[in-house]
Amino acid sequence: MNKVGINRQGQTSMKEDCPSKADCCGGVHRRSFLADLGMGVTGMALGAMLHRDGISKADAGKVWTPPDGRPHFAPKAKSVIWLFMQGGASHMESFDPKPALNKYGGLTIAETPYSHVLNSKHSKNTVLFTGKERSLLTKLLPMQVDFHQRGQSGIEVTNWWPYVGECIDDIAVIRSMWTTDNNHAAQTQFHTGRHIFQGYCPSIGSWVHYGLGSLNDNLPQFIVLGGRILPHDGGPAGYSADYLGPQHNGIVIDVDPANPLPFSVPVAGVYKEEQEAKFKLLRRLNELEAVQYPEDPAMLARVKSYELAFRMQTSVPELFKFAEESPQTKQLYGLDNKVTRPFGEICLTARRLVERGVRFVEVIHGYSTDTLGWDAHFHLKKLHGRTCSEVDKPIAGLLRDLRQRGLLDETLVVWGTEFGRTPGVQGNTDGRDHHPSAFSCWMAGGGIKGGVVHGATDELGYHAVDNRHYVTDLHATVLHQLGLDPRKLDVPGQKRIELDYGQPIREILI
């Protein structure tokens, strides 16, 4: 019998009984075509469905053997909760206080003992401000909040973070992060490691999904909560899988028990049994198609997504049954306060997700609650005071809740933002501009040392100067704790630069 296959170049290849093109219909033997037709309209129905969704046969350059879902070495963590403060949180007013700003506030940088920071040797690694913009940095803006030593470790944390400060002994603060984009497309860079002008690549959440697969077949393994990255900042590219394929994209879910996902609500008038029968048929059609087109990952991914959507109709709404939680737990997350309740519900949902086996949960805070979010070009004291009050207690509640449930050891919690803010005042305002040369992140749980500070900025917080880390070092640390070697995740035909891989921050690992 004639057989049709797809070779590694994505071309139709004919076996022995297709001696010439004259005997073939568009590269497919007429007997195979008739055999397909003999299956009835089912094959055409599947084709129409996939065509409707823009799915075509796999691109030759995107054919590869994916990982088998097993870690490359013994992992320290199973899941990640990635807390992203959208807009650029100030490192000086959070986890890297700079008393020198108070001492020399109002003076030009040239009038301080620290004028050398403007010409630091580290400047060549970042996108520097233009002469005009640099002149705006010459007057130092005093810190807008006090700070104190916290916990047994005595790490300095500002008074805008009192609850997280109480958890500091579980946290490793990294004060020496840097990036290169001085505008908000740095949000995409923070997630993918690439400046937007370098072209897109997979996000850290997608790499985790691609490398490790599923712990719960009823839920997506990469979920985004709380907000979205705006289009001019990279949009969905910040949580997309790019060339890894759409099946590894982050799925955005709104913390709205009434309608978290449009497709999580059954279609009116359609019984569950009808839907289940439809997907059983679709699975069978997929099996038939896979015989002739074994290297078509796009089709396989789409069929799986239909099945997942069906299962999510019951699993997703269950996530938001907060009534199941005790009054003590609700209070822990700040659900009893109108200021902390919105983000508290998001953090509680994140815990419920990792508890149910979701690998990577991204939590975004910022533009969804305010047009500026953490982007405090002016009124920094007012804006940061408000944003910190919205997230401080919920984040601390998340850490405490994970610990008391025995989940913190296997859940890696990451707090970050796309860049820091300038030590100088922006023009004649009371705010700070974007600052990619230095900022802070922190990590907790999942094999991370607690109560430690790694890296340092100069006296003014202008440059990361000690144990400097580009954003992909954060990615490499996450992958390492999950038991993944990024070099073993490479996809044939996709070129990566050395900076893409990063290096695990081993000094903060247990």
What does this structure look like?
By secondary structure, the protein is α/β, with parallel strands linked by helices. It has a domain at about 80-260 and about 325-335 and about 360-510: Alkaline Phosphatase, subunit A (3-Layer(aba) Sandwich), CATH 3.40.720. Helices cover about 30% and strands about 15% of the residues. It has 14 helices and 19 strands. Strands 5, 8, 9, 10, 11, 12, 15, 16 and 19 form a 9-stranded mixed β-sheet that branches. The chain has a two-stranded antiparallel sheet with strand order 1-2. Helix 8 (about 270-290) packs antiparallel against helix 9. The longest helix has 25 residues, at about 380-405.
In short:
By secondary structure, this protein is of the alpha/beta class. Helix content is 31%, strand content 14%.
Helix content: 25-40%
C-alpha Rg, in Å? 26 Å
For the record, the CATH class of the domain at 79-260 and 327-334 and 358-508 is Alpha Beta
Strand content: 5-15%
Low-confidence region ranges = 1-63, 126-133
Distance between the termini: 61 Å
How confident is the prediction overall: mean pLDDT?
82
- Count of DSSP E strands? 19
Largest sheet: 9 strands, mixed
Q: Assign the structural class, choosing from mainly alpha, mainly beta, alpha/beta, alpha+beta, or little secondary structure.
A: alpha/beta
CATH 2nd-level architecture of the domain at 79-260 and 327-334 and 358-508:
3-Layer(aba) Sandwich
CATH topology of the domain at 79-260 and 327-334 and 358-508: Alkaline Phosphatase, subunit A
The number of helical elements comes to 14
- Assign an overall shape: globular
